[in-house]
C-alpha cells in the first residue's frame, strides 16, 4: 500500500507545514466570518476581526491542529476567511513563516492559467 501521507504532502505541502497559521495575525472584515464559530473569532475593531489566537506577539491560530512543520490540519478549512486563502505555498508570506520555524523555503507554486473561450 502506498504512503498516502507522502503523496498528500507532495500534492499540498501545506498539510505538513502550518507555519503561516502560527506566524501572522489573520484579520478580516467582520462580515467575512459569518460561517465561523464565535469561539474562533476575536473582535479587533468594530469593523475588523481576526482568528482567535493570532492577535498577539506569538500568533497561533486556534483552528490549527497538529504540529507545525510535521502534520497539521485546519478545523474550519472550508469556512476559513479570505486572508487564509490568500497565502499560497511558496509565496513571500509562506516562506517568511516557514523561516520562523526553521523550515526550508518552498518554490513558488505556479497557478494554472484559466482559458477564456
Structure description:
This protein is an alpha+beta fold and 117 residues long. The chain has one domain. Helices cover 19% and strands 15% of the residues. It contains 3 helices and 5 strands, in the order H-E-E-E-E-E-H-H. It has helices spanning 4-11, 82-86, 92-100; strands spanning 27-29, 41-43, 48-51, 64-67, 71-74. The strands form 2 sheets. The protein has a 3-stranded antiparallel sheet with strand order 1-3-2, with no helix packed on it. Strands 4-5 form a two-stranded antiparallel sheet. It is globular and about 40 Å long. The termini are far apart.
Secondary-structure map with pairings?
Elements: H1 4-11, E1 27-29, E2 41-43, E3 48-51, E4 64-67, E5 71-74, H2 82-86, H3 92-100
Antiparallel strand pairs: 1-3, 2-3, 4-5
The structure class reads alpha+beta
Strand order of the largest sheet: 1-3-2
Question: Any idea what the radius of gyration is?
Answer: 15 Å
Integer count of domains? 1
| Helix-strand topology string | HEEEEEHH
- Oligomerization state of this entry? single chain
